[in-house]
Design brief:
mainly alpha
């Protein structure tokens, strides 16, 4: 099980790097083009640029004072 955790972290980091490279190269690809190219959901690409992680640990906390 520990090996799988390491593999998942590595794959996630590699996927994030690839998504950022595809967006930065020259004119860059759109989020939709990146999602289709990599074979993932559009929302996953958007989450990478928003700084979200799978566990939600980096999501901004909801403001409940309104």
């Amino acid at each position: 099980m520990a090996d799988q955790v390491v593999r998942n972290r590595t794959w996630s980091a590699e996927r994030t790097d690839l998504i950022r490279e595809l967006r930065a190269d020259g004119e860059g690809m759109s989020y939709r083009e990146i999602a289709e190219h990599v074979g993932i959901k559009l929302s996953t690409v958007q989450d990478v640029f928003r700084g979200y992680k799978g566990a939600g640990t980096t999501r901004p906390k909801k403001n409940t004072e309104e």
